[in-house]
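FAQ
Q: What does a multi-component entry look like?
A: The components come first, one per line:
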Amino acid sequence: MNLHVYTEMFYLAAAVLATLGLSLRQPQLSRAAVGALAVGALVHAAAFLQLHEFRLPPRLSGLRGAVSLAAWVGTLFFLSLMRRGRLQALAVIVAPAAFLGAFFGSRGLSPGAEAGADVPLWAQMHVLLASAGFALLGVACAAGLLFLAQRRSLKRKQGLQGRLVLPPLESLDRVNALALSVGFLLLSLALLTGVMWTLEIEGHLWPRSPHANATLAAWGIYAVLVGARWLARQGATRAAQSAVAGFAILLVAVLGVGMLT
Amino acid sequence: MNLLLVGMNHRTAPLALREHYAVAELGPPLAKLVDRDVISEAVLLSTCNRVEAMVCAARPDVARLRLRSFFERDLASGPPPDAGVSLGDALYEFSGSEAVRHVFRVASSIDSMVLGEPQILGQVKDSYRAAVEAGACASILTRLYQHAFATAKRVRNETRVAERPVSVARVAAELAAEVFESFGEKTALLVGAGEMIELALEAMREAGLARVRIANRTRARAEALASRFDGSAHGLEELPELLAGADVMLTSIGGDGPLVLREDVERALRGRGHRPLFVIDLGVPRNVDPRVDELDGVYLYDVDDLGRVAEANAEERRREKVRAEAIVLEEAQRFDGWLAALAAVPTIRDLRARAERIRSQELERAVARLQASEAPREVLEALTRGIVNKLLHAPISKLRGQEDREQGLATLEAARTLFALDEGEPEAEPPQGEES
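Then the predicted structure of the entire assembly, as tokens:
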């Protein structure tokens, strides 16, 4: 039984329910989407464990494995936010992203695929931290997008009818700040472990690959964004715009360059 | 048993008349109304917008007169006021299916002055509870009101008739909830002390608003309001400092020009770490410089903005009313079906007793003939023929004896329906013990 297929099914169901919940203004559908995401995350965890039933576990240091891991971590982070309520609508971005991540990741992640390689500890840690950081910055981007949509409708003074039921601005800003801070920290640690990995296998600190250079540039941009948020006391709107722009750059740097090279 | 409703509401009676017949204690008048002979069950509803008595009556004509005198003698608090409308003109009547539908519409809040307002369902529940406690409610009205509550729940779940607020105060509170996660740690600053501002504050207090600060030209008025809302009173000169600590600002104060300028808010924002500020300006002329809305993190709504939102919400409720009416009609028909089935019970009982009597008589006769050693087949023939003839004698005589053409056709139609003559021959049941 390929648990990745079931994971995709639950994430897809969550995406459909979240979209319907938001467009039809039915909060119970949004809550059902969160439930489907939670089940999907459980099955996803079981799918990762299943890979290790085999003598030669597949390495997760490949791009596909890392994307699948990022989808899982992002989903878990989103679910952990549910304790403070009224954020269900965020599932409208998280669920499709989780589905796409799981779908893309599972295509190269069957038991035995990429197996046999002797993966150093630094590499495993690098991928785990980078995936988690990537996922959290993705959630910050999602919160930023919804913040901008909610702000726009409030500023336009639209009637409440026909409007999407989005989370309060304050909640979205809180998610943005938390995800940005923790995500940046994880991304920084991923860079550090990446350097250690390179040092161990190549004997120098920086691999000078396009992927590594693009990632370093993205990290630099994020460092500026986080500094602006916490040191320059940037406003919530600018922070939301920055989170969206920053993640777009990171996507290009990590996924785009990674796939091209 | 007949259902009858007599009452008045905001459309048929002015406030002076409604308050004259309104009652606070429902038990005593109910005790006077229910008298087993004419009215077996009753529920009395008395709110600021309606006074209605719903009864279950054995004799509807007498009950109708009884209900009108009930309003005149038992509900009236003294001589009738000069309200421009007499009691006779103000009272409306519904009976049977119409009464059922009216109760469902009232409980579902589609007969209310403010369409979709949530209080009416609680008031109907209270009036039903009072009737039960007074012993005035039995099986039929219990079933009717339980069905009404279920219908109201369905209307609320399946339509948007009550989804969005339509009062300016509630709209303000709802918009604030789109900015803030909760009101638990929030501070509201009130500039002025008008009625509108109080209503908006009450709506936010219900949502859990933590702190209230009131700034007014007349400090005594601010103190009076502050004591009501457990807040603090301030003079207008403290406005700049108060603004820095506020999350929501409500203004409604007289004056020639804006009291709060863009520069004031800009300065306050710098000292508050870019926390959002929600401003509701209910003043006419406006108390807050409109350019404040250009600032990031500030959401300014004036009285026109709120009015537009409230009107758009009301328009949506009106559109949803059509769907709500369809649900009410469907549920009322379902209840009518139950009531009709209830009315059929005595007839079914009589029909069965008559058939049983015929069967017993024919069986006695057959047993006697068998004991006289007559051929069993002939006895069985006579037995079954006798039962069929006697069962069909009365309906066939009625069918042949109809003189009025219209009624004759209706009876023929009823007979064809009752005996399922157009549904083909029923399949013969297999003899017992035979495997199919």
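Q: Is there any commentary attached?
A: Sometimes. For this entry: Chain A has eight helices and no strands.
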